[in-house]
Amino acid sequence: MKTFELKYGCNPNQKPAMIYMNNGQDLPIEILSGRPGYINFLDAFNSWQLVRELKAALGMPSVTSFKHVSPTSAAVGLPLSEALKRACF
C-alpha cells in the first residue's frame, strides 16, 4: 500500500488527511481493521517507540497504551504471583 487516506485530520470536523512515503515506497505498516485517523497513528507510533525503548533498557517484552498521544499505561512481561493468578482467574 503506497498511500492511505485517514478517517480525518487531527479532529473529526477536518477533511481527511493522507499518509504516504516521500520516496514513493510502500508504507511500512499494515492496517488490520478499520480506518484510523491521524491521532490513531500518532498513538501507534508513540506506543511502538516506548515498547522498543523498554525492551532495549530492560531486555523484557513490554506493552503500552496511548490515548491522544499520552501514555496511559505500560507493563513488562513478568511472571504473575500465585495470588495474582488466582485473582485474575
Provide structural commentary.
Strands 1-2 form a two-stranded antiparallel sheet. Strands 3-4 form a two-stranded antiparallel ribbon. It has helices spanning 38-58, 82-87; strands at 3-5, 18-20, 62-67, 70-76. The protein is built from 2 helices and 4 strands. By secondary structure, it is α+β, with helices and mostly antiparallel strands. The N and C termini lie far apart (42 Å). A hairpin with a 2-residue loop joins strand 3 (62-67) and strand 4. The radius of gyration is 17 Å and the shape is elongated.
Global shape: elongated
Task: State the CATH architecture.
Answer: 3-Layer(aba) Sandwich
What oligomerization state is this entry in? single chain
Residue runs with pLDDT of under 50 for 5 or more positions: none
Which structural class do you get from the secondary structure elements?
alpha+beta
Helix proportion: 25-40%
The N- and C-terminal alpha carbons lie at a distance of 42 Å
CATH superfamily: AICAR transformylase, duplication domain
The H-and-E topology, N to C, reads as: EEHEEH
What share of residues are in beta strands? Answer: 15-25%
Average pLDDT, rounded to a whole number, is: 91
Short description:
The chain has helices at 38-58, 82-87; strands at 3-5, 18-20, 62-67, 70-76.
